[in-house]
Amino acid sequence: MTAEKNLAYGWITRAGRILFIRREPGTFLGGRWELPGGTVEPGEPSAETAVREIAEETGLTVRVTGERATSSWPDITGKPVTINATVFDVVEDGQGEVTLNPGEHDGYAWLTPAEAAERDLPDHVRRILS
Question: Domain span at residue 84?
Answer without folding.
Answer: 3-127
